[in-house]
């Protein structure tokens, strides 16, 4: 035990709270990656406005860029490996949700009911078409509660500006991620054959565990398999356990 001036003093409660508050909520998040994400979102949103600003949107009285695109940028640049941030969810999720919102606005007389139905149906449609994208809910809502210009544009709103915005953001994100050596669209990292053989995990095990937990996770099955398999190999190495050819483990002598 340390005493006197060498004694270890526990951090003050305010310091612990501050550290906890600013700790990244995402596993594997580091400051350099966060800064790159901030830079990418800032540049690509600005360029999306510049590109889409050259289109004749003023005549249609619709915005040059829609607010849901800001949320899309958070996903595309802050969590580019997320299944929700891939190109098809960004483009398909936003456009299909906007179409749903327009249809609900035109078919349902009550604003509250139309807004709720638009978001709910949008989630269902995105789920069925494998393009679940949270900002899509905002796109559907915008189509219901938006300006008269948006309502006057009708189904064209789903193409201009929602579709054009989404395509522009994805293309700019592809270029930015390639320039910064990041994987987008994301492809799961394959385990080396020897490492895969040493791991005792199988996708069926992961499916069974997820089924037991009754939860949805923002990570693909393949990424989860690679992550857990690598974690298992680190655990084997830490405990000094040697993998056997059958995929089970035995403690090394």
In total, how many domains does the architecture comprise? 2
The description of the largest β-sheet is:
2 strands, antiparallel
Low-confidence residue ranges: 1-7
How many β-strand stretches? Answer: 2
- Strand % is under 5%
Average per-residue pLDDT, rounded, comes to 83
Outline: globular
- Helix-strand string: HHHHHHHHHHHEE
The separation of the N and C termini measures: 35 Å
The level of helicity is 55-70%
Record the strand order, biggest sheet: 1-2
Rg computed from alpha carbons, rounded to a whole number of angstroms: 24 Å
Query: How does the helix and strand content classify structurally?
Result: mainly alpha
Q: Helix tally?
A: 11
Can you offer a commentary on this structure?
By secondary structure, the protein is mainly α. The protein has 2 domains: 29-179, no CATH class; 193-251, no CATH class. Helices cover 63% and strands 2% of the residues. It is built from 11 helices and 2 strands; from the N terminus they run αααααααααααββ. It has helices at 13-22, 31-53, 68-78, 87-107, 111-128, 135-145, 148-153, 156-179, 193-198, 203-213, 221-239, and strands spanning 241-243, 249-251. A two-stranded antiparallel ribbon has the order 1-2. Helix 4 (87-107) runs antiparallel to helix 8. The longest helix is centred in the middle third of the chain and has 24 residues, at 156-179. It is globular, with a radius of gyration of 24 Å.
